Amino acid sequence: CTGAAWVQIRRNTVRHGFPYQPSAMAHDPVQKILAIGTQSGALRLFGRPGVECYCQHESGAAVISLQFLINEGALVSALADDSVHLWNLRQKRPAILHSLKFNRERITFVHLPFQSKWLYIGTEKGNIHIVNVESFTLSVPPPRPTHPDSRYTYDEAIHSVAWHHEGKQFICSHSDGTLTIWNIKGQGKPFQTITPHGKQPKDGKKPEPCKPILKVEYKTTRLGDPFMILSGGLSYDTVGRRPCLTVMHGKSTAVLEMDYPIVDFLTLCETPYPNDFQEPYAVVVLLEKDLVVIDLAQNGYPIFENPYPLTIHESPVTCCEYIADCPVDLIPALYSVGSRQKRQGYSKREWPISGGNWGLGTQSYPEIIITGHADGTVKFWDASAIMLQVLYKLKTAKVFEKSRNNKEDKQNTEIVDEDPFAIQIMAWCPESRILCLAGVSANVIIYRFSKQDITTEVLLEVRLQYEVNDVESPLDGGGGDRDPPTPGAASPSPQTAGPPTHPSTSSNSSDGVRDNVPCLNTPLKQSPGYQVELVVQLVWVSGEPPQQITSLALNSAYGLIVFGNSNGLAVVDYLQKTVLLNLGTVELYGSNDPYQRQPRSPRKTRQPSGGNGRFGGNFTDVTTKQVDVGLCDINECSASEDRCKSPTSGKLSFSVCVISVCTGALPFFAISSTVLLSVCPPRGANPLDHRDNSFSRSRSSSVTSIDKEVREAITSFHFCETFARKGDSAVAPCLFVGTSLGTVLAVALNLPPAGEQRLLQPVIVLPSGTVARLKGSILRMSFLDNTGTFLPPSFEPWYEPNATGADGEERDKARKRRPVSVSPSTSQELQESQYAVVVSEKQAKVIALPSQNCIFKHSITETSFVLRADVVQMNIGNCVACFCANGHIMALSLPGLRPLLDVNYLPLTDMRIARTFCFTNLGQAMYLTSPTEIQRITYSQETCENLQEMLGELFTPVETPEAPNRGFFKGLFGGGATSLDREELFGETQAGKASRGLAQHIPGPQGLEGMKGAASGVVADLARARIALDERGQKLGELDERTAAMLASADSFGKHAHDMMLKCKDKKWYQF
Hints:
Blueprint: E1 6-17, E2 22-28, E3 33-38, E4 42-46, E5 52-56, E6 63-69, E7 74-79, E8 83-88, E9 95-102, E10 107-111, E11 118-123, E12 128-132, E13 137-139, E14 158-163, E15 169-174, E16 179-183, E17 192-194, E18 213-219, E19 227-232, E20 244-249, E21 252-257, E22 262-269, E23 280-287, E24 291-295, E25 317-324, H1 330-338, E26 367-373, E27 377-382, E28 389-395, H2 406-409, E29 423-429, E30 434-439, E31 443-450, E32 454-468, H3 494-497, E33 524-526, E34 529-537, E35 551-555, E36 560-564, E37 568-573, E38 578-584, H4 585-589, E39 618-620, E40 626-628, E41 652-662, E42 672-680, E43 714-722, E44 732-739, E45 743-750, H5 756-760, E46 764-773, E47 778-785, H6 806-814, E48 834-840, E49 843-849, E50 853-859, E51 866-874, E52 877-884, E53 888-893, E54 899-904, H7 911-916, E55 918-920, E56 924-930, E57 933-940, H8 941-950, H9 968-973, H10 979-986, H11 988-991, E58 999-1003, H12 1008-1012, H13 1018-1063
Antiparallel strand pairs: 1-57, 2-3, 3-4, 4-5, 6-7, 7-8, 8-9, 9-58, 10-11, 11-12, 12-13, 14-15, 15-16, 16-17, 18-19, 19-20, 20-21, 22-23, 23-24, 25-26, 26-27, 27-28, 29-30, 30-31, 31-34, 32-33, 32-41, 35-36, 36-37, 37-38, 39-40, 41-42, 43-44, 44-45, 45-46, 47-48, 48-49, 49-50, 51-52, 52-53, ...
């Protein structure tokens, strides 16, 4: 990996999701594109599905108004800081051409008539300023008349005005919920007054006032009644009713309820000309957190199915994963099951916002984004080729009995403590399609992917318990050595297990599942897609709540998952449905604990019911026959000998509840089950602040004292085939564990042979001691071979878990672990066969294995700390990518750890960024830039070079529709202003130049005429050439017709002349 191959600047690629805090909207009816402005000064432009664009005003002021230059490829935006900007949309990345900054007046409204070069800007002082769009200069309007031609007054405040297309009537909406229709030649009184939602009194009195009608639009049709569309105006007695849009057509009135408050709405019409019949066909409604398009052409006014990825925030996002270059058959598989989840009742017509063209560039590898949400849902998104499309939606809350009423929480986009199903950590194996989720309620759910239905049912429950008594600290005067507990057969006892078929769920009990922890929902019918394989629930023990899970990993080739928290870790065999290992962090060190632990106050504990409960114990299957899993005790490991002689952090209590779940037709080894596991914290210990909530925890680099650290949490895992101990001669399956104090420990895994023996013989788990220590919490671990090539974890290929018959035989053949191409040296002298890459919050190290010597070390940051680190594969090699809390994105080469990239990209302004930032292969990264939007970035030169071609084009050359015929009498007797009238009225020749102090002009790189010729991209050039050829062919055809007509006329004239000559040939002059 060389520095020359890297782009030394970061590059935003695309932004997905709903525009956060929208404030304005505009639509181009000819180009068929939509623009939305936000309160943070952002612009989002939408065309056909897959054509989107994001722009940002530098000032960050709120967008208060937007106006398209219809079919000109330009947009005018007015901001709350009293600036007006002209955007060029004829390029793939729109840019500002001109700006005007008003100094004396506040802008309140902007209007640009169709095919006009005069922009009208209204201010809070009641003035209307005229701007020439072509030069973007301010014109001096004529003096405001003291006595206008017509004045219309009404008792109630006016919120909006809309014209009838003939210009003879207009309609106003008022603050008392009424609509007034006025004739131009009226007597100063409304022609008609309507209260759409008011109750009409029987005595003929005025209806009761309603809520203000904030906006009304008046659209006409040729063959029917006009449409009046309005927002607001509901009766005051409709307390708690959701916001509504009202559509009045003839005698019918339809009230359409919305999920969120209405920001603005626009009616889409067939013609861009305001003086023609409008023929409305749809209404675009911009809500605070959604975009809805209503079909006016179908009965019942159904909505269109929104093709944009605007539902990212449907429930607040709690975590993200980004996977590039995933298996090619994965996206079609997810789409096939996700297509069955689509709602019904949408409009059958095509999505009306269909402008722009897709980019010509292609991406050779598929990408998937996974988002976890506060309501327990997990969404899979197809993120290939800078697009985003939802593939599949998984609802984990169905596993539990407690249900959530999402309707009450829709208006809250922040994560709250009352979300018991919130997803906290995700681990996914794309090759085997196994998904593991850790929830905020300290539960872990394992899912398998299946294309068939399945129904599960709870059959049995067994509870095991193991305790370690307090150990006196030498620092506290309690000197002597203590013998470890005697291992013995762990058998479920009535005193500790409770009733065999009912877990403890009472909030008054010291053990078991509490009321605020979700309870299992069985029997459970599972549709095709991701289906529950196993549930692990940490429960309350001795009145102590379970600590949240801080790290999670799975390996499909080994059939194991591991998770940890601030107390310790647990390894679970999800194939045999057993707990293989549950240890406190202190016990992982054994007698080699380098830290002087602070003593805890001793307390009386219950007698242990069994000795080796941490290592599996007895397992009771569905036939209640005991099956010994016979795991090796920790005393057999030399690195962990005399583990209880070192001071511990107090009592660690583990309560395990195993619930088997059977599908009925499957053999024993295919039984699904639920494991409930609890790790109880020591009394007096303060819970560790998690990274997604606070950064207040100690970041001391000392490894001799943990006075500032109450506990040592498990922060990272990595399954691999490597050397577990120093000096090993052969690789074997291992688990590497990283802690919050910067320690890396190894755990050896002894797996039975693949196939049926793997499902019957026990898995041996042996802690093997410390491998390395770094400054700060361990974030990421990975492995390279002796040539520096990345060693991916082994995996199991996907198979249909519910297959029967011949398909079942194919399934058994497919269940073979993928071999890892790692071969240690065969020479007698020990050579380094692998390199372990370890990244912490402060530094990175490359450690040679099996000697465990540090060969490269790099200090990433001294003044800040790393939030996210990943070992990623690039086309040019491998690297370590880091995102720091000070906003820097860094890249280090492997294995040399030489700096390749250091860019000050984004300061940490919100914990949401730290929680969702993630890197993936091939130079891609993403994070949640707002509660509703995903920002994708790239740090790869190759991607930056291809990005321009991959981006879509908003502007496409389209013929402007013909203007409506004015009619003979209208043209004869006049009516309507002409462009010449306005030129004489507002032009510099007649009106002069405006005062320079009123508004400051900030010119852009090119004018409007230059903008028209600046359309970029091959698609636009080809389209213009095609239209030019069509026009040329049409003109040539017309020329041929005119030539033929002239030839026929000449022949006729020659014939008549010849006849006249013959007739007059023999006449004398006096005979004429």
